[in-house]
Amino acid sequence: MNKLGKLAQEKNMTLVYHHHMGTGVQTEEEIDKLMELTDPNLVSLLYDSGHLVCSGENHLRILEKYINRIKHVHLKDVRKDIVQKVKNENLSFLKGIRLGMFTVPGDGNIDFEPIFEVLRKHNYEGWALVEAEQDPAIANPFEYAQKANNYIKTCVKFA
To answer: Start and end of every Xylose isomerase-like TIM barrel domain (predicted)?
Structure first.
């Protein structure tokens, strides 16, 4: 990772690692290990609210802990009833996606106000991307983008 980070740096780019369900870096313990083993000047972190909540992690603690290394944010909500169904029935990650376990902010169970508060408090200026990972045949992308935009406007407190 450090080698890739150095190569990216040489091209005026930043290497940002995305923790993700079903991969080698999913849990807080795995994120901690990645951060411990990599140079903060070479490797940054992508924060994904949905993957952390689905993994059962304390998403706010991780955000606070690594805010200085976070260079990209995925704002993704979860539908906890579907996540529970996926776990109870031992369904695949892909099946969970197709069932709609992820959605846009404001359409699931995550309270995004505390997330935005941490980002604001630390003057976060990186990327923030609304992400749904939903079947577009079921959840119209334009309608869900509008839904997310409207919800985020109620959460973000501009100082």
So the answer is: 1-153
* pLDDT at 118 (0 to 100): 96
The count of domains in the chain is: 1
User: Which residues neighbour 22 within 8 Å (Cβ) at sequence distance 6 or greater?
Assistant: 93
**DSSP assignment, residue 90?**
T
Return d(Cα 41, Cα 9) in angstroms, integer.
9
Neighbouring C-beta atoms of residue 96, cutoff 10 Å = 23
Residues 86-130: tens digit of each pLDDT: 999 999 988 999 999 999 999 999 999 999 999 999 999 999 999
Among 87, 45, 89, smallest CA distance to 64 is for 45
Assign residue 55 the CATH number of its domain: 3.20.20.150
